[in-house]
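To whoever is on call:

I kicked off a structure prediction for a single chain this morning and the downstream step that reads the tokens threw a length-mismatch warning. I double-checked the sequence; it's 473 residues and nothing unusual in it as far as I can see. Pasting both halves so you can look.
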Amino acid sequence: MAAPSRLRGRRLLGREVEREHEPFTIDEDVSHLTRIRSEPCPRTRAAMHRAGRKKRAVSAFEMLSARESGRSGGGGFSQADRAYAAGKHLPAKGPWCVEDMDSEAYVSQFSSDGSLLVAGFRGSRIRVYDVDKGWKVHKNISCRSMRWTVSDIALSPDQRYLAYSSLSPIVHIVNVQSAGRDSDANVTEIHEGLEFCDDDEYSFGIFSVKFSKDGREVVVGNNDSSIYVYDLGANKVSVRIRAHEADVNTVTFADESGNVLYSGSDDNHCKVWDRRCLVREKPAGVLTGHLDGITCIDSRGDGRYLISNCKDQTIKLWDVRKMSSTVEGRPPRLYDWDYRWMSFPSNARYYKHPNDQSLATYRGHSVLRTLIRCYFSPVHSTGQRYIYTGSSDESVYIYDVVTGEVIKKLSWHGSIIRDCTWHPYRPTLVSSSWDGYLARWEASGDNEDPSMLTLDEQRTSPYHQMYGMSFAM
């Protein structure tokens, strides 16, 4: 009796979803906006055409030559000109070693000015590195009340405080600008705990933590299917939203106002929340299109566009103006699998949601075993022309937003790359891997530098003895 039932399910599946055979497409509005911000401005293009050039890619040398000779119409480069020139020099050489740790690297993040790099490792270790002083350790933090690993980290906008979370209902705050290099929780320094649950008999884990742009609030997503906002001035939880029907793996602020939040969940949905008009915990809108759990969301910072990484092995680009007020259609269940230990079904790779609202879909990387992160590339140096992501196939992928192509694939690591971070101003990218390495990729560098990693240093695990099965998060 079981076999016929499964066959009926497969026939129904064929009617619920479509296979996506068409080539990559993108909404014209976001394509045009991205090109404006990442390609030479009209004045520069006009100067090139006056010089008798045919319409083709403009080199950085030609742009400099036109500016110095006065053919560019006077003035310096526009922001788009600078982003175009810098965007041609991607951080794809190397890698060089930033850290060789005896546990998996889970998260990494540059500060907003690029002067600091923060990385969190499995267990109870966080390190802060001074980028301008040869990547020396600025702060060595031993965390408090850890459950399994550091699940997320966030620097305050003034770069004074670091928030870190674990699989517990407490976020801890530590001063990273204090005098001491070593910060042992409640031994050498106080790590203030923000309690998100006052029920001693109930607990949950926090997967995502972010500071608001003004540094006054912290928002978290957890496996209680909820979003919490903590008011640091009042020292209490100010907002709780029962946001999803499954774990909230990722949450972030949409823009500098702090009024709008984006969340992503294992219920397959991205949701938009406007705190100015929360009624009965109803979202401002829902973005439908993914076929499995969301692992990461990154906002473009304009309150309009965002990207999401997903266990369906895709990144999707969204415009909140296209969101619906309710979930569109019944979410199709395409396959029975568990991303923590199974391979993704090959026949499901090009399935498409019948009510897909996304602007574009990016494929090539792999999302298995853990909540792999994705991001827009920096505004200053690339005009956000690219999307980059870690991958369970031990690589970093860099996609062109406009064409959908994989522009670069950075491969050296011997294990999953869960997170990566691009310097806001320099052509530098750091990958954090389960092999225990923090690796630095540059547009150029010294191959004779002793910190350059070699094939002999590759490994699949930072441990002398492998664990049987790592917990996936």
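Update from on-call: the warning came from a stale cache, not from the record. Cleared it. Sanity check on the structure: The longest strand covers residues 93-100.
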